[in-house]
Amino acid sequence: MRLFKKSSIIFCSLLLLTACVKTKVIDDVEIIMLYGFDWEASTKEYIGTGVSPLYGYSEQADTRENAAYTSQSSSIQGITSQIQHKAPFQVETGKLTSVLFGEEVAQIGISDILQGINEMPDIGRMLHPLIVEGRAENLLSEQYQLEQTLPRYIKSLIDSNIKRNLPKMTLHDLNYRYYGEGMDPFMPIIADRETIVDIVGLGFFNHDKLVYKTGTDSFFAFKALYEDSNDATYQFEWKKKNKSLSVISIQSNQKKKWVSKNKLEITVKIEGYIAEAESLGLDKPQNKRKLEKQIGEKLEEECSELIKKFQELDIDPLMIGASAKSTFRDWNKKEWEETYPTIDIQPKIYFHIKQTNLTK
Amino acid sequence: MSSQKRKIDISQMVSPFLVLYILHGTQMGEGVLTFTRRIAKVAGYDAWIGILLTWLLTTIIIVIVWKIVPDGQDLIDIHHSIFGKRFGNLLSLLFGVHLLSLSFYVMRSYIEVIQVWYFQDLSIGWFSLFLYILILYLVLGGFRTVVGFIFFSFWIPLVLSFSILIAFQHGHMENLLPIMNTSYWNIVKSVEPMATGYLGIELILMFAPFIHKFHKGLKWAVSANGLTTLIYLLVALSNFVYFNQEQIQLLAWPSLHVWKIISFPLIERFEYVGISLHFIVIIATSCIYFWGSVQCYYRISKVSFRGISIFLAIIGFISMFLVKDYLMIEQLSNIISKIGFCLLFIYIPFLYILKLIKSGVTKSHETI
Amino acid sequence: MLRRLWKKTNHSPSIESFQDLITFMRESDDFKQLRFGNNSAITVYYYQSLINTEKIKTNLLPYFQDLSIHNVQEIKNILPFDETEVTSDLGAIEEKILSGFIAITLKDDDQQVLLMPAKFETDRNVDMPEIEFSVIGPKIAFIEDLHTNVNLIRKRIKLPHLQMKLLKVGKVTKTSVAIMYIDGIANQENIDTIIQRIKDIEYDQIIDSSFIGQMIADNSTSPFPQLMDTERPDRVTSAIIEGKIAIICDGSPHVLTGPTTLVEFFASYEDYFLTWPLATAFRIIRIFAVMFSVLVTPLYIAVLTYHYHVVPIDLLGTIISSRKDIPFPPILEVLILELTIELLREAGARLPTKIGQTIGIVGGIVIGTAAVEAGITSNVLLILVALAALASFTTPIYRIGNTIRLLRFPFIILAQMWGIIGLAFAIMFLVTHLLRLTSLGRPFTEPFYPPRWPDLKDAFVRLPFSVQGKRPIFTSSIDKNRIQLKRTLAKEGKRK
């Protein structure tokens, strides 16, 4: 009898315990998967827009719907708690897939928002930071004709492009470049194209402010200088024959070599396939070599242009400063910042064409 | 006061090669989550050389420990023989406090991790009640059960350390370059924060009589120390290539942040699984320290083992409420790290010298 | 013993002589008394219900035709039966009469009693194993009769060192319990422990071997069985040869062997009939199945209640849509479904075989789909619970299957309390419990802890017979070598 009493007391206290920590039952929370931030100049506040997919309701329908909540506050925590007033369930940010910055907010500076995001322990580090052309709110509150929910669409859009020409950038990479010395972050730019969302370019930051934008055509040049790629493509305008060639399945790897303290060579070795090789007369070795050289020169030109621009703007997305830091023992930040725009940076591209002929 | 029960029940003794698991288990506790930040603060990204240095020093200390302890004796006997009964017992008492506070600290700091990562509103009361029930259940099973648990938990960091390899894939190797860009003195200074990760060597003094043929355990203890170093080195390098120096100082638990990028087809955020698995390691570490302090008090008092363990568990349970926030834990960690450093690198060699002198004196007496 | 018991209760007359005993026994209507010969010189006493009366008529009566007998010893000499004995010990007489012997006395000398076996055999024939059925290998199982069971074992071990010790247990049932082991292989300490513990049993009835199993277990409050329990003679034989000790209980078709370890419960005897890579694969599958069975529903609760982060984005939609209409929190959902499955299982086990099968199928399919359609449970969970139930049946030993069945409930509660951390708690408690368990004083978690690497050859994996040359360490057998037996076999010249 005593044992029964004891065990019943234990059991009752166990039942009481179940109410001990706050539950987040998966279907009773509002899972915010996209967060967009804009700047409201008049009130000097951030406008946050959270998108959570509406599961279940449109399971059978062709398109998936989202719910977008917008609120205004001077801090991230404030925005989240404001959104809570609008959402029917408890707001949870643990499955965030992308953070979107409106163009305006990116120009003003993202440091407040970045620090706010870093303070949330439930957010992963593999999510994609993105810049939105125009306002993030507009992009997020629109309803698109998509087969997936918007967060998943954007996630797969970026993920599949990173495997191709888009340089890799995650929240961790952003933090790394934001806090580190001798480097600056960049982000892909997306835009609302009425029915779908598109990647339209890259935005480069000076510490936390957006200072320079490029279009999609400079993706490959930047990617080649920035990191090794596995499956990139490159569009080459062959002026001589007035033809546009596409080089596919490009494998490239890059190496930085310091010739002297003021001279850096970035060697990029690229291998790619050209599909319609025969019709171009590439079966002759000298023709092939000629083309390789031409493409190499063209790329070198593009790269030099990019680098020059970076040096002009005093930004370092290629992490040249960090490379110098690990090469020269007496590196210091102040001195580096002064010398960076004057450094001679030479891209060296070695292009190699592999042929594929399905038909001979 | 007289010491209890010199003879140890044979069914509680373990074979010498288990020293490998025990020592590794005691060293691999909470420290592995934070030490990269602490050592990088002192010596930058050359701090990994500091790990090697600490390894060298601790190996020497382990050899000294084996020189101090004769077969079948523990620290209490040594204290008795060197300092006499009363003063010896006083020192043992302090040693017991050290072990208990370490056991407590390891657990409390991990509760902080759980609070940050899982449940912001976790009530410490119920949670630590369960913790201490578990620890009592383990400790009352005797030394063998405690060692069994450590043996079980041994495999977890071993498996988890593979997962951390992913950091090298995403990391920047050039962070480590140029090597030796800081002063030698800084690297020597990094030994102090690093030594916390090697604490556990002093516990050998407590469980030595529980090891069959204790003298054979030396090689296992040395290899345990080597294994710990290997894992620390791996963790440190992975953290260093993954974060830059400015970033790592902002993270409370850098090693856990590396897990944030690991995802499997079924588990998208590995950190949640990793933290709960590492929890088992934490309990093992805390438990062996708890056992050590119970054993210490059991030997110098006349109370039963069971009574002491329940009493100490209640003390631990109450102190859970006294440590309120992260700042206090950091303070506690600083104190423990200092005490541990002194214990390892000053007190143990000191004991050895005293013992040498003592045996020299008795020998010379005998020859006269 | 019985008399002493009666005496204590003060209801029975004191029994001082054989006549008193007979008078007392005659109170029962099935106690018979026959007289033969001149002047009814010979009297035969027996319980009709225990005796094969046919046997008396055909075997006994002819001998009593020619009568010039002066004492019972003479009868004993002419009767061609084993186990006959002449005694005057009242205790022995009582016991024998009650276990199916006939008592024969002469008129002149009623102190000397001849006891002759004439047991009425009601036991069924040796049959197929029902619980531990194997597709390959011998298909024979123990039955309720002790001697048949001993016979099944001894038939397989042709060695004089195979010993059997007979004990009587149970104040009222006086069940015969046989302990079998091979002298020279089994560790004496284990034998002594078992015999001592069985002798120490204080209880009135021992109906089945599981009574003994529970009473001599090291920790009787543990949900884990600490002695192996099998109905296969081949398994017992192999255990005895490994140096373990078998406990055979009269009236029970299950034989206990010990000491045992946790992994042994996951080893089907069929593993030895398959080639070792297959056997190893199946063993590993089985262990994973058990882990899955225990962990899957608690994990479901932990993840759905607290850790939605862990769910991959692609799966999130599926899970949320499946749960959208369900009004309960995951814990209630799981408890409802788990209890339904337990109900089906319990009902299936109690019902006659044919109805049981139908109920299983009807219950599984109809109730399951209906529950999903009614919006009580989600279909994701239904799959998981059904798989978990299926997985718990993969354990070859029924007894551990029961343990696993119930083990998940504490896990479920802890998972509801603290999510994955609660699960880690549950695992730690389980591991601690297992570490503290012993079987006949030997660690239960062997060969993992204490780590005995050589014993791993037959644990998670089953390596080929060529590397199984040594007996497992944990039985502490005297003769460790399997191939060149030193103690139990005389050298028959050199073997190649």
UniProtKB/TrEMBL annotation, chain A:
The keyword Membrane applies. InterPro entries: GerAC_N, Spore_GerAC-like, Spore_GerAC-like_C, Spore_GerAC_C_sf. It is a lipid-anchor. It is found in: Membrane. It comes from the Bacteria. One of its GO terms (cellular component) is membrane. Coiled coil: none annotated. Transmembrane segments: none annotated. Belongs to the GerABKC lipoprotein family. This is Ger(X)C family spore germination protein.
UniProtKB/TrEMBL annotation, chain B:
This is Spore gernimation protein GerB. One of its GO terms (biological process) is spore germination. It is found in: Membrane. The chain crosses the membrane at residues 47-69, 90-111, 117-139, 146-168, 195-212, 224-243, 272-291, 303-323, 335-354. It comes from Gracilibacillus dipsosauri. It is a multi-pass membrane protein. GO terms for cellular component: membrane. InterPro entries: Spore_GerAB (IPR004761). Keywords: Germination, Membrane, Transmembrane, Transmembrane helix, Transport. It comes from the Bacteria. Belongs to the amino acid-polyamine-organocation (APC) superfamily. Spore germination protein (SGP) (TC 2.A.3.9) family.
TrEMBL record, chain C:
It holds the Pfam family GerA. It is a multi-pass membrane protein. The chain crosses the membrane at residues 284-306, 356-374, 380-399, 411-435. GO terms for biological process: spore germination. InterPro entries: Spore_Ger (IPR004995), UPF0353/GerABKA_families (IPR050768). It is found in: Cell membrane; Membrane. One of its GO terms (cellular component) is plasma membrane. Keywords: Membrane, Transmembrane, Transmembrane helix. Belongs to the GerABKA family. This is Spore germination protein. It comes from Gracilibacillus dipsosauri. The lineage of its organism: Bacteria, Bacillati, Bacillota, Bacilli, Bacillales.
